[in-house]
Amino acid sequence: MLNFEFHNPTKIIFGKNTIKELDRLVGKQARVLIVYGKGSVKKYGTLDKVKSALKGRDIFEFEGVEPNPRYETLMKAVEIVKKKNITFILGVGGGSVMDGTKFVNLAANYKGEDKTDLLKGEYEVESVIDMGMVLTLPATGSEMNCGAVISYGDGKFPVKHNLSYPIFSILDPEITYTLPKKQISNGIVDSFVHVTEQYLTYPVGGIVQDRMAEGILLALKDIADKTLNNPTDYEARSNLVWSSTLALNGIIGKGVPQDWMTHVIGHEITALYGLDHGQTLAIILPAVMDIRRKEKREKIVQYGERVFDIKTGNIDEIIKATRGFFNSLGLKTKLGDYGIKEEDIEKICNNLIRHKRDNLSETGDVTTPIIREILKKAF
Ligand code: NZQ
Ligand code: ZN
Q1: 2 within domain boundaries
Q2: How do residues 246-258 score in pLDDT, each as one tens digit?
């Protein structure tokens, strides 16, 4: 096992009817900015529940964070934080809203003039405003990590900071019942691939990390059908919510190598062609396994045996089973399925080069020629 440090300060409040706990979690004198998306929280009553729990405090709202949250949108919320002397920011939504909330908090507290510095990783922020989340979509793990992904120009940029852990996140599985099937499929794949990015590398004797990773993958497989086809099955949905938080709260990736290649390539595809985050992962992961079969062999074989019960060690069979699982959720696994053409490969590669993301993998040895091969395999 590799050396590591682990610290995660986010308190999780999990379960039915937990939104009311906001009254206990947010100071009575707080001036609260509630950040949310394009309206689902209004439509399904979540915002009302949040406001009622926060009764007595000065409440402001910022509506309109879009999927794959854009810098320009979030900067409007930064203005409100400053003008209204906000002392607490509460994100209520999915990954886009939670990421956006983290960015708003950092940008409002960054002293530099040009807030795009945050997208380049060239900034220092010494303190931020207290921040919490109410999760409405299980997928990204943003509720218990310090990362955010922000769209700007033709790219998506990771913004990670130690001060971006929420103080608390409320995870009430029942408020996710209103999600359309497509978002649940995306969420299952996103959680699944968060695990594989921290697991399908090379063995370092991280037995406990491997078993935890396999446990999450198996749980996702076990509940996928149930939670897709019977959204109000509490047992299945609560396991999806907790699986997706555990998949990216840092714990399974400590002490083992990581390879975020599927995500990095996927982000460029979302930025260029507008595919959902989960849709890109379902296409790219099988292609990565295929092209990197030699480097990842031991872990792919272990995954095949322990997650899909494939005992032959046949990599093609294991890739087929992975694609089959994604297909069973209603997701497509080829770039061509979304109208992307082989000649677009160069465009994707060029953007990766421009964004300085052309040395990928657990060892940094995947440069443009190999990325091109992976993209070809994705057709
Ligand atoms: O905007 P509203 O109206 O709220 O609708 C949203 C949105 O259209 C809707 N929705 C959310 N909760 C709902 C609901 N509809 C009905 N009922 C509910 N309870 O779902 C749609 C998608 O929401 P979004 O937040 O965009 O989805 P997701 O949670 O998949 O987040 C994707 C974003 O997270 C980033 C992705 O890159 C992408 O920008 N990621 C963040 C990560 C992190 N912070 O660690 C890691 C991930 O790998 C990922 O990159
Ligand atoms: Zn993801």
Answers
A1: no
A2: 999 999 999 999 9
